[in-house]
Predict the structure.
Amino acid sequence: MKFFEDIAIGERAELGSHTFTADDIKRFANAFDPQAFHTDEALAEKTHFGKLCASGWHTMAVWMKLNVRERQRTARNLEMSGIPVAKIGPSPGFDELKWLKPVYAGDTISYSCEVVGKHESRSRPQWGLLSFRSSGRNQHGEKVVSFIGHVFIERRDQGAGEGA
Amino acid sequence: MSKLHFEDFTPGRVFERGPRRVPRDEMIAFAAEFDPQPMHLDEAAAKETMMGGLSASGWYACCILMRMSVDAFVGNSTSMGAPGVDEVKWLAPIRPDDELRLRATVAETRVSRSRPDTGFVRFDFEIFNAGGIRVMTLTTSLMMERRNTAAAVS
């Protein structure tokens, strides 16, 4: 990851895509979200979803998987160019998560990310808080998920500002 | 046993579940598949991070919250899922083998305008660790079927 100061609002990244198989959907749901529309094809047909669909948390977990993969790829590229890599901290949370359409078995979701906000941390002068809007689209181009995430990114000028 | 419907979720009603252990193996296996960052995978590397030691992925925490909700009441309800989540806050690290408790409080309810046979129930979810520290909050509205909307006149 680039340092906090070097990231501009409006920067976009494509995070890649993932195909949700019926087996994966059921395995995940049986562990974490055992509701009929996520665990059983026949029962799912009788619900308002009409077909087996992935737990919303499954679509988010896969977002994180692809997000981490993209960060690691970026870090490798920076390292190979001899550019220092900034540390990535934890996230304090997220907002406005919308599951806009079901993710059905066999759907391929492509995720992207855009920086929407930057705030310097007063209590942690070595970190800045980056906000981003991320979304996923299915193979028909329909947006299926969207949310605003936040993550701490290392600052280049640590504590050089007013701090406090 | 009859399932919980929209009308059963009166504001202020509380559902609780737990303690639920979050085993180190499960926590790390989740991180290895979905969130492979050092703070979630490796004890020594995690000590060097802001988390100060191995901690659960926030997404694993969301999944545990979901599972505890299903076990607490969602699995015995007419839930049709949720259109989203208003806000999640990860307030403190969740450590391996901690014992988590869930508290879900009904905040408000409203009948759907577009689907009068369903309603939205907004919940404030909280997760506490074994020490009683609140480690996570989540606010969301679940869609629930209304009771006897069609048969109300009979």
